[in-house]
Design a protein that fits this description.
Elements (H helix, E strand, L loop, with lengths): L4 H16 L12 H16 L19 H11 L5 H4 L6 H11 L2 H12 L5 E4 L17 E5 L2 E12 L6 E8 L2 E8 L5 E6 L11 E11 L11 H37 L1 E2 L2 E2 L4 H29 L5 H31 L5 H8 L9 H19 L2
Helix pairs in contact: 1-3, 3-7, 5-6, 5-7, 7-8, 7-9, 8-9, 9-10, 9-11
Length: 387
């Protein structure tokens, strides 16, 4: 173990508790994107000087350069607050985009797009999901297309539920080309990009919201292509596998903090002549939550070990995403139930957590689709064994 790791974990916990959590009190009821953007920017000023900035990225990009088996523990600590990942620049979709650009982008693209993103000077988004009948959990339904005309790419696309699009400096667009799916890097102030609306959703703590975009007659050059044309799906997987795991890390922090609130409440609240903590039904809810959180942490660590070896983690990432997302939803739900009317109030953040975590079972691939993919891979392996 890195001898500095326990110190870094403790420092992250202290930074979240002392710097980030107090800012949560500014949010209640309807949250505006402008307010969230202001708080995010102010917290990042402090995050950059905290010694905890970008734990997973290289030191050349201003990060700590930790392996995934160590960085994940800081992600969990940061995730204890909905604002924590923003403060340390490890929130989606920027974190996943940084990883993809770091692996695939050329030198010029890294300087133009990755370096400002890693420095927290800009935000980004990833434009893949489309209105029906376009791509969602099934990327093969991709409708966006780009063709070469007189040496330039002409791109047409409708995208929606694009997280972070409002206020983003650039987007990565997945589109079909004659070579196959291709990713383009495009500044969001391009005149042929229209932000049609910010879609009202259940969750409110995603900077830039979830937006519907229109790309009409978008003219691009080869310098706007990320990597090679035709490798878009391959590049998307480079981004998605670790991104699914970092979602698990961040949201597990929310489950852990919710459990702390519920335990403290149960120790104090009297009901039928004893504290809630002495009621066996409450004890079962607390025990099940601890068991599932421990299993979630173990799955995350195992998948991170595979990532650190430079190996593909698609199967393990899918299993972890399904299990952790359902664990987080169950734990937060139990905690709200234990806390009763206090749980659904805004006196504690658990009610906000409850709204925010629900989408986790849908984004980055609905859990039902992940289960289908897990089973298909299992059957292919069974066929290969000859059983």
């Amino acid at each position: 173990m890195n001898p500095d790791l326990p110190t870094l974990i403790a420092q992250t916990r202290d930074f979240i508790n002392s710097v980030v959590v107090p800012r949560e009190r500014e949010f209640s009821g309807q949250i505006s994107l402008e307010q969230l953007e202001t708080v995010r920017s102010e917290l990042q000023v402090l995050g950059r000087t905290s010694g905890l900035w970008l734990p997973h990225l290289s030191k050349e990009l201003g990060g700590l350069g930790l392996p995934w088996t160590q960085a994940y523990q800081l992600f969990i600590e940061a995730g204890r607050s909905l604002l924590g990942p923003q403060a340390l620049n490890i929130a989606a979709p920027d974190e996943g985009n940084m990883h993809l650009l770091h692996v695939v982008a050329n030198t010029e693209q890294k300087k133009r797009w990755l370096e400002p993103l890693a420095a927290g000077l800009v935000r980004s988004c990833f434009s893949m999901t489309e209105p029906p009948p376009g791509a969602g959990s099934d990327p093969s339904m991709l409708q966006a297309s780009a063709t070469k005309v007189d040496g330039k790419w002409q791109l047409e696309a409708s995208k929606w539920f694009i997280s972070g699009a409002w206020g983003a400096a650039f987007t990565l667009i997945l589109a079909k080309t004659p070579e196959g799916a291709t990713i383009f890097i495009v500044p969001m102030n391009h005149p042929q990009i229209t932000l049609k609306r910010v879609i009202p959703t259940l969750d409110h703590f995603s900077p830039g919201g979830h937006c519907e975009l229109e790309f009409a007659h978008l003219e691009l050059t080869d310098t706007d292509v990320l990597g090679e044309p035709g490798k878009g799906f391959e590049y998307a997987q480079i981004r998605l596998d670790p991104a699914r795991l970092t979602h698990c890390m961040r949201w597990l922090g929310i489950a852990i903090r919710s459990l702390e609130f519920a335990e403290a409440y149960a120790l104090q609240r009297q009901s039928f002549g004893k504290t809630l903590a002495e009621q066996q039904m409450v004890q079962q809810m607390i025990a099940d939550s601890h068991i599932e959180i421990h299993a979630s942490r173990t799955m995350i660590e195992h998948a991170c070990g595979i990532l650190d070896k430079g190996q593909r983690v698609r199967h393990e990432a899918s299993m972890t995403k399904v299990f952790v997302s359902e664990t987080v939803n169950k734990v937060v739900d139990r905690c709200l139930q234990i806390m009763g009317s206090t749980g659904i109030s805004e006196d504690y953040p658990v009610s906000q957590f409850y709204k925010e975590v629900r989408a986790f079972r849908i984004y980055d691939g609905a859990n039902e689709v992940h289960r289908m993919s897990i089973a298909r891979r299992a059957f292919r392996r069974a066929e290969a064994r000859g059983t």
